[in-house]
Design a protein that fits this description.
The chain crosses the membrane at residues 86-110, 122-139, 160-181, 201-220, 232-250, 270-289, 301-323. Its main location: membrane. The chain is mainly α and 325 residues long. The chain has helices spanning 3-6, 15-28, 33-47, 53-64, 70-83, 85-115, 126-145, 149-164, 170-184, 201-220, 224-238, 243-257, 263-274, 283-291, 297-322.
Length: 325
């Protein structure tokens, strides 16, 4: 995928159509990042032709080696390709805001439902539906990238390693190793080319400064909103592999260490987000709201905002830094 192809921006007059398609993706993307890619393929490639299938696969590969929400970073990068950084930011808002708003509301509804003894058993049907979306996405993408013995072996090895090694760091390690194997088996004579890189370093500086500033602020100020913002920002830059990976990290700190909510309350929120379209990182809005529920309703909303903004911001900054390269 050439640099010219990557940076072909669509005129601003076409932005409303693109943003409408992003909203369609947001409202129809169930099942986690793997299933989201199938939605992107249908809506943004096949139907609208904003990019080619090969471009999409390469963007997925790029976003997969970065910490943060893979599907969110992928669609934001498509927005960047289509209309530049401003459209990328608007893409982020339309993609994430609907489910963030719902999860913020659900952080208030838990006590309401519990008081009326409304069972959460109805959620048990959502899991099998999500599995179906994931299987379809894996099949459709897999048949395009698994084309020979080498790629088949890489797929099987990656599947086994990531199943048995439950660590966030296994994802980038497997991807880097797979890339090295692919390069070593490549028949291209000029696979390495000298390029002059001039990335926007200020985004990387902001990425590190916010992380360091959050750690300092939590040490100086004993304010729960600051602690929540720092915690969720940290989740955003430490976790690879999507929403399913970040949940155990959040559970360990928010439930077991800080006791912001019970195990049942945490699992209820996770069950609810499984049945909603959009990025699974939106669970952070529910968790942030629940963690700040001991004060006023406005304070609880602020907690949800701290969770939602905090967990998505690192991945967004990394995309703004990496993609123009």
């Amino acid at each position: 995928m050439s640099r010219d192809t990557l940076e072909t921006h669509t005129p601003g007059a076409k932005w409303p159509a693109f943003l409408r398609d992003v909203l369609i993706c947001s409202l129809g993307a169930y099942g986690g990042p793997e299933a989201h890619m199938s939605v992107f393929l249908d809506q943004l490639v096949v139907k609208r032709n904003y990019l080619t299938e090969q471009d999409l696969l390469e963007l997925i590969a790029l976003c997969s080696i970065l910490p943060g929400p893979t599907s969110t970073q992928t669609i934001v990068t498509i927005g960047y390709k289509t209309g530049g950084p401003l459209l990328a930011f608007l893409t982020m808002l339309l993609w994430a805001l609907p489910v963030l708003a719902v999860m913020t509301t659900l952080s208030f509804l838990y006590q309401f439902l519990e008081a009326r003894e409304i069972s959460f058993e109805i959620l048990r049907f959502i899991g099998p539906m999500a599995v179906g979306f994931i299987i379809l996405a894996a099949y459709r993408i897999g048949r395009k990238v698994v084309v020979d013995r080498t790629t088949g072996t890489l797929m099987a090895t990656s599947m086994i390693l990531t199943y048995f090694i439950r660590s966030p760091w296994i994802f980038p390690l497997v991807l880097v190793a797979g890339g090295a194997v692919t390069i070593s088996h490549s028949r291209e004579k000029e696979i390495w080319k000298r390029v002059s890189l001039n990335p926007p370093w200020h985004y990387l500086a902001a990425f590190f400064l916010l992380g360091l500033g959050g750690l300092i602020a939590t040490a100086v100020f004993q304010e729960r909103l600051i602690q929540l913002a720092e915690s969720f920002y940290r989740y955003g830059y430490l976790v690879f592999g999507g929403g399913q990976v970040v949940v155990p990290v959040m559970h360990s700190e928010l439930v077991q260490i800080r006791d912001y909510m019970t195990n049942q309350e945490f699992l209820t929120g996770y069950g609810l987000v499984q049945g909603l379209p959009g990025p699974m990182f939106s669970f952070a809005a529910y968790a942030g709201g629940m963690a700040a529920r001991d004060s006023t309703a406005l304070y609880q909303i602020a907690g949800a905002i701290a969770g939602g903004v905090g967990i998505f911001l690192p991945g967004l900054l990394l995309i703004y830094f990496v993609y123009p390269v």
